[in-house]
């Protein structure tokens, strides 16, 4: 699995988890969703993603989205 696919899967999982926590615990969990969305948006333009940097250092195969 490439870095780009891992980043997208992780973002989706965090969004799903934060929406579930907002439904069952407290609406402030939606701020996690906002943070992930803003990070994905800025990564689309700048190519910078903190998770991609961590995965690269761990030796994960690079993809086409993040080098």
Provide an overview of this structure.
The chain contains three helices and no strands. The chain has 67 residues and is an all-alpha fold. Helix 1 runs antiparallel to helix 2 and helix 1 (3-24) crosses helix 3. The model has no long low-confidence stretch (mean pLDDT 92).
Global structural class: mainly alpha
Mean pLDDT: 92
N-to-C series of helices and strands: HHH
Shape: elongated
When the domains are counted, the total is 1
Largest sheet: none
Count of alpha and pi helical runs:
3
Radius of gyration: 13 Å
- What is the distance, rounded to the nearest whole angstrom, between the alpha carbons of the first and last residues? 14 Å
Low-confidence stretches: none
* Percentage of residues assigned to helices: over 70%
**How many beta strands in the DSSP annotation?**
0
- Tell me the strand percentage band: under 5%
Question: Could you provide a short overview of the structure?
Answer:
The chain is 70% helix and 0% strand.
Which features characterize this protein?
single chain, 67 residues, mainly alpha
Give the topology, please.
Elements: H1 3-24, H2 30-46, H3 50-57
Helix pairs in contact: 1-2, 1-3
């Amino acid at each position: 699995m490439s870095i780009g696919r891992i980043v997208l899967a992780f973002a989706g999982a965090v969004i799903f988890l934060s929406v579930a926590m907002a439904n069952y615990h407290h609406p402030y969990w939606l701020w996690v969703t906002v943070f992930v969305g803003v990070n994905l948006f800025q990564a689309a333009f700048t190519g910078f993603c903190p998770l991609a940097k961590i995965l690269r250092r761990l030796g994960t195969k690079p993809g086409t989205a993040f080098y």
